[in-house]
Structure formats: C-alpha cells, structure tokens
Amino acid sequence: MIRICIAEDQRLLRGAMASLLDLEDDLEVVGEAGDGAEALALIDRLQPDVCLMDIEMPRKSGLEVAEQLKERRAACKVIILTTFSRPGYFERAVKAGVQGYLLKDEPVDKLAEAIRRVMNGRREVSPELIFGSLQEENPLTPRERDVLKLAGDGQTANEIAASLHLSHGTVRNYISEILNKLEVKSRIEAVRLAEDKGWL
Amino acid sequence: MIRICIAEDQRLLRGAMASLLDLEDDLEVVGEAGDGAEALALIDRLQPDVCLMDIEMPRKSGLEVAEQLKERRAACKVIILTTFSRPGYFERAVKAGVQGYLLKDEPVDKLAEAIRRVMNGRREVSPELIFGSLQEENPLTPRERDVLKLAGDGQTANEIAASLHLSHGTVRNYISEILNKLEVKSRIEAVRLAEDKGWL
DNA sequence: ATCTCCGGGTGACAAGTGTCACCCAAGGGC
DNA sequence: GCCCTTGGGTGACACTTGTCACCCGGAGAT
Asked: pLDDT tens across A35-62, in order?
C-alpha cells in the first residue's frame, strides 16, 4: 500500500484528487494540507511514502517545502503538481531533488500511474517542461532579482535604493542592465516577463 | 437525471470533477470543454441542464460565455467555478444572470449538492463573495480601463496615445486620474491593484 | 605583483511621468 | 437660453527613468 499526502491549497482539487486516489486498491491518501507549513508538519508526523505538492501555496511554497525535505534527508518522495511550466520553478525543483514534476494539465488517469512509477524509482516529468523550458535559465543575478522584486511592488528607484542600502544611481544601473538582459523596454514588462518565467 | 457540462482548462481538475460527479446516481457529465469557445459550441450542441464554468480560460473567458448564453436566452443554467473572489468578476457574473458562483476553495462534497439546488431553482454563492467584495465596485470608467490595460503591457504614454487615437497629454491626464482614484503612486501599483480586483 | 573581473558608485543627458490649472465643444436637463 | 457635466486637449513644471561613459577598491588567478 502506497501512503500519500496531498499539499494543495484549492480545497476542491485537493478533495477531488484524494477521493479518486483512494478508489485505487494500492493507494491510500493518509493526509491533506492546505498550505506549505502544514504540509511540512504533516510529512514529519505521518512519514508518507510520497507527497503530491502544489507550488503556489500560502505561507510556504511547495518549492521551499521540497528544499527543506531535502535538507532533512526525509524519505518522503515529492511529486510537484502545478499549473505553471515556468522554467525557473522547474530548475529549482530539480535542484531540490524532487522525483516528479507534473502539470495540472495532465489527464487524471496519469496521476495514479505516475505515483506508482515514482515509487518504483522512476522519475516523472510532463513533456512540456523538457521542450519549452530547459536551457532557458534565469539570466538575473541575485542582486538584480532583489531590485526587480521591489520594482514590481511599484517602488521608485529612490525607494528601492533605501530598502537595499544602495545608491539611487546604482539601482538605475541595475534596472538598465535587467532591461537589456530581458530585452524589454520598461520595468513593467520586465516584471511581467520575469514573473512569467518564474525567475522572480 | 441532471445533464452536466464542464468547462475548465485544467485537465486534471476537469477530469477529477467529471469522475466524481458521474459517481452520483442522479448526475451525468455529458460533455467537457477545455476553453470558452469550445464550451459555447458544446452547450449549443448538447443542450445540457447546467454547466460548471471556469472564468480564466483560453480563447473566451467563462464570463463572456455566460454573457453570450444570456443573449441567446439559452436554457442551460450556469455555475461559475473559479479561484478568484474578485469583486469585478462577481459583479459581471451576476449581471450575466448566472445561477451560481462558487470558489474552488469549497470542499468537493458541496459541489453535487450545489448543482442539485441550482436545478431546484435556487441560487448558490460562496459566502466570501458577499462579504469581501460586494459594494467594492469598479471605480474606473471604460476609457480609463482601456488606458490602464495598455499601460499594463508596458506601453509608454505616447504608445498608448497612438493605440487609442488620443493625445499624449490626455493619456497622462487619464493616468493621473486613475492613480488618485486607486490611491496609488505609480502605474505598476495601479495595474496590480486593478487586476487583483478584477477591474481590468 | 600585476591583471582582470565584479559589485558598487558618479554625473550628465534625453525622454518619460505625474500634476495642475485651464480651455473647448457637445449634449442633457429645465 | 442657460447651466452643468463629460470627454478630450494644452502647456508648464518638477521629478523619475533609462542610458552611457567612466571611476574605485577588493578578490582571484597567474
């Protein structure tokens, strides 16, 4: 019997997946979590074989949870299950050593099969990921990311400078550099593009 | 037997809901669509009793579909099923005469019940909507919305002016007005806020 | 010990942004 | 006929943005 935890913030989808997986003879959903922090606690307590993990959840993202599980050398395997085929997310997930990365666009019947295959030591990845995203890695340095995040909140160059203890001019240099790395003409486009790719 | 169509772009959720609803004796899922245009065609062809409708879908949003069904005086009832409790969406849905508006955060078991109640002539609305959103109506005029949308794509005042056949100065007046209606300091914040509220 | 790279900084310029006061024409209401 | 609102416009001002050329000091490589 494979013991499963589900971490997913949309109650509807979470409940629906749990009901369906429970119908399978060899699968058992032992716990459900509605956010990342809860998921981590649940896995600690229940020691399931595998966890289906959404990425964008309140309190702690699925990627953070996966990273922390890796740190603690937890036995629980992780299958990321998300809407987004953002290259940045995928890259981070792989580095966190997850066993699977599936898109919510996959048909339901693939789900149980994927879980079984992962339990047999295989890796499961939705094909879109390999094509679309690989090798399109994050061109932004950590500092540039900091700047861009704040710009995304609508902060002005001066405000960003204050938040980051930099000078006003330096911030503008960073932004200028970001714009030409991303090949766009304004902060707004840069923020949109970076968010879209999961580069934050 | 209640005949149901499901319009939802996430295949996983769509499939899961279909399987679960089909387990109920009095419900039958007769069709599934992955985008708005497909949904409209499907409803035309199959004449189901009720349609579960996501909002943010490719090609045509669930709100557009609902509006067009109303225009054609279609018999099919509509239950909106979405992640977003955006006031603007809810308002539009009500105007389009939908019978239900549920959040994907609802537990699964509510779903079948909601469908039955709607078929009995009742209205079904997730409680969050009433509180959070009502009476927080869109403060933007149609023209202001046009301007803000383009600004959201990263267009400059001049570009927006050209797209809308306005003068550069007028565009800036609009933006200035938008900023103080929305009580924010920059276009970026304005775009974020408006998108978040569903005011587009 | 020198060289080069890198994070950070400066100053100047052109263009874009936000604000404000004010203008004009077309309707609507009365 | 008059008043008021509405959509659009102008011009000026101060500030912010984006770009560019160039400077500085510390760390690594050789």
From this structure: 999 999 999 999 999 999 999 999 999 9
